[in-house]
Amino acid sequence: MNAAAATTIVGVSATNNDFLLAVEGLTVSFDGFKAVDDLSFYVDRDEIRVIIGPNGAGKTTVLDLICGKTRATAGSIRFEGRELTKMSEHEIVRAGVGRKFQTPSIYEDLTVFENLELSIPGTRHVFKALGFRRDRAVVERVTRIAEEIFLADQLTRRGDELAHGQKQWLEIGMLLIQDPALLMLDEPVAGMSVAERTKTADLLNRITRGRSVIVIEHDMNFVKDIAHKVTVLHQGRILSEGDIDKVQSDPKVIEVYLGH
Ligand SMILES: Nc1ncnc2c1ncn2[C@@H]1O[C@H](COP(=O)(O)OP(=O)(O)OP(=O)(O)O)[C@@H](O)[C@H]1O
């Protein structure tokens, strides 16, 4: 069911739990400036949603609001029926929301294996404990994720030895190993080669079985490869929304974004 249909059926507010994420009336003001202004959008289960828009449109701020880094001035963010605006960042992570920032933040002095292992919920303190041994389940889980992110043959390499694209994949893997129901990625292919972008599109298309992904992106070729639906932001509001063809041919979008 799409957002419009849900709104029609339930009337005023589409608090419909069919959606993985329902953002309604979301607003944040910084000293009176509304970076996000009465924004509503809905993300389906297993959907890849791409958010595009000019610089300063509010894209990163929307992700900051969803993950709890920034507090909303008004509005609601319902995720699997739970209200995120009232939860701390840690609670939001535990509820199943993973967020990757623009620059990779892996542990440079640890191996790929160790980076993934440390990201498994609950292993951080076990790792430090005397006599900790890796059990087979951990090894299998790390190996499975490493295969997904094209790093199966890089497990013993240190983070600082990886190429930029490999670091980006490792960070996606560090989120995937936590098995989030919603994964949010801010410009994941920035600085990647064309071949790496193609592999990343393949990776994102594979991982949406059982989870949804929100991606902020400027590279329209990449957007075409992954987007189920595109939301175009401008001045903190939705300028256009729909499939890539609809959005690309929308005169308003061409005027403020694509035509530049
Ligand atoms: N903590 C903050 N305090 C004050 N203003 C902020 C804050 N965070 C964001 N803004 C402002 O809100 C607006 C939206 O910023 P945001 O980073 O969300 O845009 P964006 O669409 O992600 O842009 P870009 O494509 O350049 O990353 C900008 O004008 C920015 O300066």
Automatic annotation (TrEMBL):
<dbReference type="Pfam" id="PF12399">
    <property type="entry name" value="BCA_ABC_TP_C"/>
</dbReference>
<keyword id="KW-0067">ATP-binding</keyword>
<dbReference type="GO" id="GO:0005524">
    <property type="term" value="F:ATP binding"/>
</dbReference>
<dbReference type="InterPro" id="IPR051120">
    <property type="entry name" value="ABC_AA/LPS_Transport"/>
</dbReference>
<dbReference type="GO" id="GO:0005886">
    <property type="term" value="C:plasma membrane"/>
</dbReference>
<dbReference type="Pfam" id="PF00005">
    <property type="entry name" value="ABC_tran"/>
</dbReference>
<dbReference type="GO" id="GO:0016887">
    <property type="term" value="F:ATP hydrolysis activity"/>
</dbReference>
<keyword id="KW-0813">Transport</keyword>
<dbReference type="InterPro" id="IPR003439">
    <property type="entry name" value="ABC_transporter-like_ATP-bd"/>
</dbReference>
<dbReference type="InterPro" id="IPR032823">
    <property type="entry name" value="BCA_ABC_TP_C"/>
</dbReference>
<dbReference type="InterPro" id="IPR017781">
    <property type="entry name" value="ABC_transptr_urea_ATP-bd_UrtD"/>
</dbReference>
<protein>
    <submittedName>
        <fullName>Urea ABC transporter, ATP-binding protein UrtD</fullName>
    </submittedName>
</protein>
<feature type="domain" description="ABC transporter">
    <location>
        <begin position="21"/>
        <end position="260"/>
    </location>
</feature>
<dbReference type="InterPro" id="IPR027417">
    <property type="entry name" value="P-loop_NTPase"/>
</dbReference>
<keyword id="KW-0614">Plasmid</keyword>
<keyword id="KW-0547">Nucleotide-binding</keyword>
